[in-house]
Amino acid sequence: MANPVPNPVQRLRYFDGEYLRSYDFTDEQSYHIELRRLMNLKLHLHGIIEGLEITLDADSVSGGPSFYSITEGMAIDRTGREIIVPAPYSLTNVLTAPGLTAQDYEVWICYQETQTGLPAAGYLDCNVKNQNTRLQEGFQVYLKPVNGPGLVADCSGVQLGIITLTSSSLGWAVSNPRRWGRRYVGVRAQSVIAPDQIDAENDPFDITALTTPVTDHPLAGYLDIHPGAFDRGNVIVRKNLLVGDDFVLNSSDKSKVSYSANLPTFTPPITGDVKISNDLFLQGNFYGYNPASGQWYGLQQYIQGLTPVVQTGNASITITVPGAVPSPPVASGTVTVVVNSMLPAVTKPLQILVALTEIDWVDPKTLETDWLKPATVTSQFTVSVAGPSIPPPPAPSINLTISATVGPVVLDSSSVVQVPIKSVSVSYMVVFTP
To answer: Which of 65, 127, 220, 309 is the most buried if burial means most Cβ atoms within 10 Å?
Structure first.
């Protein structure tokens, strides 16, 4: 049965007069090595730290054979061990491995530990094995076929890229190096805090200016991710985010090419803004918040909510005949229509236009008898229509009341009020501005 209690972490405790053997010093080294490797693996994960690029050798000549090397650098393998390449390493060293064929290969670098060094003269015991005084931490480079199994067992190493082997007069030749499969070290942390903290009043970030020049020097108090970042979890930026090269937002200096009067006014402290120097590709949906309505809207609805809406329509107004001749001697009628803007909110005054489009007259005989005789009608006959004298308060939907006035009215021979028009038709246009 497996021991449910994990092995305790122990380190040596020294005191005067303590008797120490070689395994005590080995335990001391093991304690530091294992904890360091555990820290490497759990905190920094595994991968390339720096360098270890597959590059063309200086020995290569134009028109002649090409030679490639792995540049100096450092990596952490999948068990937390450090792999250090102190000088360029020629890939020619691995071209004599058995079983190579003309195909694509993954280039792997693995940790390798070898014993070296001998005791000083006079201290070597002829009957004891493994008396080397040093362990050299080096590396070994292997080629693994892209397709099919390799001849080398998994070494928990780090992949540096892919190359193609071709046959040449000098044997196997390396060509077409690619950076595919390279993995870089990371960090496992719930928060990352830049070491150079600054006071809010001395914050150098300016959303309108080139706060981060193209020279790309780090700002005090800011986290720089260079050259790239790949995240599988959640990222919270409490201040501002800049993607790509910085650029100016100018709403004040008209002499500059970057001037635009449409920019908002930025009032410190500036937080929650994003500047993107190139294209934005969105595979999901876009939702924008409209503070006037307090609602979130999809992209189409959001754009529609920012665009003025013109609503038009027609209505018929019946003219009401008064029982007696009023003062002034006119007859009128009204109609109320509901006009919906389809906007989430309207913040500016409405623009309303009403026009007369059609008149429904009484029969010609009555018209001729009562209005076309000068003795009967002493003033000019008029027909007018009008919308509200004062636009109603802004609202997504309104009740639009339109009135029509006809006059003058007259009394016929029987002293009955006569109106020459039964009804009028009007057209209306309402402009809603968000």
So the answer is: 309
- Asked whether the beta carbons of 426 and 314 are under 8 A apart, the reply is yes
In the chain, the amino acid numbered 19 is Y
Which runs of E-coded beta strand occur in 57-103?
68-70, 73-76, 82-85, 89-90
For 183-209, the pLDDT digits (tens) are 999 888 877 766 555 666 666 677 777
Burial of 311 (0-12, 13-18, 19+ CB in 10 A): middle
Contacts of 276 (CB under 8 A, 6+ apart): 243, 244
3.40.50.720, 2.60.40.2080, 3.30.310.50, 3.30.470.20: CATH of 309-432: 2.60.40.2080
Q: Which residues contact 373 (CB under 8 A, 6 or more apart)?
A: none
- Report cis status (omega within 30 of 0) of the bond before 204: no
Q: How far apart are CA 32 and CA 269, in angstroms?
A: 47
- Distance of CA 89 to CAs 21, 192, 249, 264, 374, Å? 39, 35, 49, 56, 117
What are the tens digits of pLDDT across the range 255-310?
777 778 888 888 877 888 898 988 988 888 888 887 777 888 888 888 877 888 89
Q: Which residue has the tokens 């959001």?
A: 302
CA distances from 49 to 109, 184, 259, 375, 432 (A): 13, 6, 43, 108, 60
pTM above 0.70, yes or no: no
Single out the residue of 107, 111, 112 nearest to residue 68, CA to CA.
Answer: 107
Give the residue carrying structure tokens 């001697």: 329
Would you call 111 helix, strand, or coil by DSSP? strand
Cα separation of 175 and 163, whole Å? 6
Instruction: Label residue 224 left, alpha or beta by phi (over 0 means left) and psi (-120 to 50 means alpha).
Output: beta
Cα 41 to Cα 36: distance, rounded to the nearest angstrom: 9
Which one-letter DSSP state was computed for residue 263?
Answer: S
* CA separation for the pair 75, 49 (Å, rounded): 5
- The two structure tokens encoding residue 429: 């246009």
Q: Where are the domains of the chain?
A: 22-118+133-178, 202-281, 309-432
Question: Residue 286: what are its φ and ψ, rounded to 5°?
Answer: -105, 135
Distance in angstroms (rounded) separating the CA atoms of residues 198 and 431: 51
